[in-house]
Specification:
TIM Barrel; two-stranded antiparallel sheet; about 45% helix; globular; alpha/beta
């Protein structure tokens, strides 16, 4: 058993105090990201490791032109019994909203309560490659998320928007229960929009405390202007964080961050033992994030082992 250094313990106690001061009664949920730099044939063993380790959530990315988010989510749900599975994020320009609603509804009815669908702008260069780059991504995401949410709530939808056009469209098999619709993005206007049109928000990356506070506040600003019907409870906020453990972990995290457009700095990525990683997860929870999705580095030498480490060693520390 590794005994954490006193400085790490003190840091965890400080974070726990901050959580109490912010009236959070539960720690953030802990999830793992399946990044599509890993070939699809490895997916089953990763999913089973996540389920067996006791992690709360597994998230799959739908990055062009790698692996389908819906196909991988369906497989993960079929192979497991308990873990929740998120799709972050399905690119709105790439998918007709009626088709997305059908896929979400079908999976939600097959595996009630375990699917977490998410939509976003999509990477604009990729959208240009397929001929679907929107002149106003913000307008598209507003129209798309609003129509998608209405369809999932069983409404018959007619809309003649700039991008979304539907005539008397209703799902024959709307989901029950209706899943939370995650909407994600990075810019200030998009983050405010996620609070307005989504049931939950996906923040792309962690960072220093002030940047996270600022982004969380933008989401809350959108919630204050929220007029959507049928709110499904408190607004969830999910955030990603690159993580590694073991020898050379900090160097691996520092090398991974630029791959995703990040510069190593305070709060960007976390490396170390279970106590160190748990302290960072609790930090993010204290700043308003309800789920922390840890993303392994592309060169993680033992992906299944890393997942088991998160579930068996890090997650128990989050409960105090």
């Amino acid at each position: 058993m590794v005994v954490p250094e006193l400085s790490v313990v003190a840091g965890m106690m400080s974070v726990m105090t901050s959580i109490a001061e912010n009236t959070r009664t539960t720690p953030p949920r802990l999830g793992i990201a399946f990044v599509p730099v890993v070939p699809p044939e490895r997916f089953r063993s990763i999913v089973l490791a996540a389920e067996e380790s006791g992690l709360d959530e597994l998230w799959v990315w739908e990055d062009c032109f790698k692996e389908s988010g819906v196909a991988t989510a369906a497989a993960a749900l079929a192979w497991t019994e308990h873990i929740r599975v998120g799709i972050g994020l399905m690119p709105a320009p790439l998918r007709n909203v009626a088709l997305t609603a059908m896929e979400i509804a079908t999976l939600s009815r097959m595996f009630p309560g375990r699917l977490m669908p998410g939509v976003g702008h999509g990477v604009q260069d990729w959208m240009g490659q397929v001929g679907n780059r929107a002149v106003s991504p913000l307008t598209l995401l507003r129209e798309y998320s609003t129509a998608l949410r209405r369809l999932l709530h069983g409404e018959k939808v007619t809309v003649d928007g700039t991008y979304v056009k539907l005539t008397d469209v209703a799902l024959d098999w709307p989901p029950s229960p209706v899943p939370l619709l995650y909407v994600g993005g990075e810019g200030p206007k998009t983050l405010t929009l996620t609070g307005e049109v989504g049931d939950a928000t996906m923040l792309s990356w962690a960072g220093d405390d002030e940047s996270i506070r600022r982004r969380v506040q933008l989401v809350r600003d959108g919630l204050a202007a929220d007029a959507k019907p049928g709110a499904l409870g408190p607004h969830e906020i999910t955030i990603g964080q690159i993580a590694a453990t073991g020898p050379g972990s900090q160097a691996r995290v520092d090398a991974e961050l630029p791959i995703w457009g990040r510069t190593p700095g305070p709060g960007d990525g976390v490396a170390g033992d279970a106590a160190t990683i748990a302290a960072d997860v609790l930090r993010l929870g204290a700043l308003g994030c309800t789920t922390v999705i840890l993303q392994p580095t592309s060169d993680e030498p033992d992906l299944e082992g890393f997942i088991r480490f998160l579930g068996q060693e890090v997650r128990p520390l989050l409960a105090g």
